[in-house]
Description:
The protein is mostly helical. Helices cover 75% and strands 0% of the residues.
Amino acid sequence: MEAKAKTSKPTAEKSTTKTPAKKSAAKDLMDLFEDSLKDIYWAEKALAKALPKMQKNATDEKLQSAIENHIVETEEHIVRLEQCFEALGKKAQAKKCDAMQGLLDEGKSIMEETEPGAVRDSGIVAAAQKVEHYEIATYGTLAAFAKVLKEDECMNILLMTLNEEKNCNELLTKLADTNINSQAVEA
């Protein structure tokens, strides 16, 4: 007599289990908006510290210049976020952004794992674009939140920053496509 093989059915229980909210969890969209502002405020401050290291490790002059310009923009983004907090009647407060920390760690790792020159420059561009994509997603979401919350001053500030992040990403793409990646192939 043949024994029936036991087949285990994948359980959906693990993937459908609800995550309990923390006591400090956002209760409404305004809470989520403010929490997200704290997150990106931390992220911009961390980026302001990381960008000079990226600039120092870049060898392409146009990439160095682009990073230098973005350092200035990032400082302005920090000031704008402080203006958003002020418009909301809140004190500017940072909350560690795990996503940005991960992206910055990855950028550091790329620099450590590549020789100085074109290949490292390509890695720096890749890492920088991942940061830009995160910022574009975050500022777009925050602007959408501000719009429905009727926080027009914040929305305008966030849209200004969103536009600068998109421009930075386009510049990085252009640098990579027109020069840096081609040099990395030849390295």
